[in-house]
Amino acid sequence: MPDRPAFPVAPPPMSRNEELLSRSLLSVWHPCTQMKQHERLPPVPIARAEGIWLYDFDGKRYLDAVSSWWVNLFGHANRDINAALVDQLGSLEHAMLAGFTHEPVVRLSERLGQLTGLGHCFYGSDGASATEIALKMSFHFWRNSGRPGKTSFVSLAGGYHGETLGALSVTDVALFRDVYAPLLRNSTQVASPDWRGAGPGETAEAVALRAARALEAHLAEHHAHTAALILEPLVQCAVGMAMHHPAYLREARALCDRFGVHLIVDEIAIGFGRSGTFLACEQAGIQPDFLCLSKGITGGYLPLSVVLTRDQIYRAFYHEDLARGFLHSHSYTGNALACRAALAVLDIFERDDVIARNREKSAMISRRCAQLARHARVRNFRNTGMIWAFEVSDAKRDFAQSFHRGALDRGLLLRPIGNTVYFMPPYIVTEEHANLLVEGTTALLDTLD
Ligand SMILES: Cc1ncc(COP(=O)(O)O)c(C=O)c1O
Question: Is 283 in contact with 276 (CB distance < 8 Å)?
Answer without folding.
Answer: yes
